[in-house]
Amino acid sequence: MPDDNPPPNYKMFESFQKALGRESSHCEVCGKVVDGHDIGDFNVLLLENNVFTAENHVVLCRDCEGRDDWKESVRRKRAAEQPQPPTSIRGKIRHFPETIRDYVTDPTARFLFGRRLGVFGILVGGTLLLIPVIAAVVGALFVSPDAGMQWFDQSIVALTAISSVPIRTLAWSCTGLLGVVYFTHIAERERNDPTGWAGEWNPPKWYALAVYTVIGLYGAVTLILVASGDTPVGRRFGARIFWFLGSLGIAYQIKDALRLDLVRMVWEPHRELWEFPARYGFILALTSFLVGPPASLPSFTTPLLAALTPTVSTAYIIARVPHDRVFRDKCIAAQDRLLEILRIRNNDDN
């Protein structure tokens, strides 16, 4: 049986059948033939935790199932079976597009978003640098050499104009582009990794999230009060420190809290609807603190943006608590204990 909690739509029997068919009912470690009709003769386990694809299921005989190194043996076997990349320069050039595609699109890769953003930045920068050359070549080939040189000069002037864009406009443009890319990334990761992860001793992550929420909410509310004139301006610096620490903790912790709730089936939230506003709200507020709000918006926008991340985290905690049976049972037990203590004290007083 798989050693992790599957998502609700996990089709175990079909995954077993695909794994058995892929391996032709052979143990993937020792090669022993197993009987695909008798579950007592074999087992199917997950190579990587919480990746419920047919490729990630491993067929094992009962002997190899108990080995501590079966995962390493399977990884070595699969690596040896993979086609080796070409070593010649011509082969590497021909294989280069496939290498880039695998590097960018691997859904289970760590730091996938960072890699995609880096590749996107390189492509944008390279495209901008090549625009003058492309303009010169196109103009020279299809119009005239003089037109090519003229287009080259005009593209240089256009790029120079882009480089002189005010820092505030440039910062908010980059922040908006980051939001589009990040939302797409989160939505894709939810499709490829519908559940989360949890070890036997993982504590509930929302406890830490609640602590960060209180800290961030205090800082955001204080900033709003300072902006409205109800609190001395001298408290602004301290409020920003509280907001930064709390919101940074929320942005870091909310992903783990969501994944842990999903794998323990506390409830089934859509991760992109909580993770994206909590994390992207932190980026929006940080941009507003550094360069100010967009030119068309008032300065009061900054404290409102600061309140976005703690507000989303507060809403998440309130929304999940009714579904958490463990927390509810603890509250009921604490209430019963408190009533018992009060009853004993009343009896002693009488």
Q: Can you describe this structure?
A:
With 350 residues, the protein is mostly helical. It contains 13 helices and two strands, in the order H-E-E-H-H-H-H-H-H-H-H-H-H-H-H. It folds into three domains: 70 residues, 3-Layer(aba) Sandwich (His-Me finger endonuclease fold); 75 residues, no CATH class; 146 residues, no CATH class. It starts with 11 loop residues before the first helix and ends with a helix. It is flat. Keywords: Membrane, Transmembrane, Transmembrane helix.
Extract low-pLDDT stretches: 197-201
Proportion of residues in β-strands: under 5%
Strand order of the largest sheet: 1-2
Helices and strands, in order, run as HEEHHHHHHHHHHHH
Report the span from N to C terminus.
60 Å
Largest sheet: 2 strands, antiparallel
DSSP strand tally: 2
Number of helices: 13
Instruction: Specify the structural class.
Output: mainly alpha
Radius of gyration: 28 Å
Transmembrane segments: 117-144, 156-185, 206-225, 237-255, 300-319
Keywords: Membrane, Transmembrane, Transmembrane helix
